[in-house]
């Protein structure tokens, strides 16, 4: 068992309602100990049994079976979250405008090169291994870059959390 922060992509938006009580119950049913959630956006902290990747895939299947939609589960250790936060390469003007997108795996160099062809205006992004760092110049609600297009070009599922949320998840996970 080891503490993991499991992030589900795009829940409670776009027709994918997932009550956090249900997420905790599903995780517990898969053997997770002390499952806790933070805000209603698919953030789970728990001691998970066995191989973390196997737990993530089992959680995806269980959520789909219970709620009828598939969403990727991407997890990290508390240390990996702290390292990603420390590696954020951009000046933080406003923490809620700066994000880390946790990717399922590292994108290829060719995919990153393709993603760099998209205009970004004053927004900034960069990839460091399995994390994409983003800073929106005027907030995520008014992006200048086409972040969905960049994400598709990277060819790797990911889920973003602003720096405030990343900090809170580190604290909740004991990191």
Describe this structure in words.
With 175 residues, this protein is α+β, with helices and mostly antiparallel strands. The chain contains 6 helices and 8 strands. The protein has helices spanning 20-29, 52-67, 78-86, 109-115, 147-154, 163-172, and strands at residues 2-8, 33-38, 43-48, 73-76, 98-103, 124-128, 131-135, 158-162. The strands form 2 sheets. The protein has a 4-stranded antiparallel beta sheet, with helices on both faces. It has a 4-stranded antiparallel beta sheet with strand order 6-7-5-8. α3 (78-86) packs antiparallel against α6 (163-172) and α4 (109-115) packs antiparallel against α5 (147-154). The chain is globular. The model has no long low-confidence stretch (mean pLDDT 95).
Keywords summarizing the entry:
175 residues; 4-stranded antiparallel β-sheet; 6 helices
Provide a concise account of the structure shown.
The chain has helices at residues 20-29, 52-67, 78-86, 109-115, 147-154, 163-172, and strands at 2-8, 33-38, 43-48, 73-76, 98-103, 124-128, 131-135, 158-162.
Strand order of the largest sheet: 2-3-1-4
Helix content: 25-40%
Spell out the helices and strands N to C. EHEEHEHEHEEHEH
Quaternary state of this entry equals single chain
Q: What gap, in angstroms, lies between the N and C termini?
A: 16 Å
Kindly state the mean pLDDT as a whole number? Answer: 95
SSE inventory with pairings:
Blueprint (H helix, E strand, L loop, with lengths): L1 E7 L11 H10 L3 E6 L4 E6 L3 H16 L5 E4 L1 H9 L11 E6 L5 H7 L8 E5 L2 E5 L11 H8 L3 E5 H10 L3
Antiparallel strand pairs: 1-3, 1-4, 2-3, 5-7, 5-8, 6-7
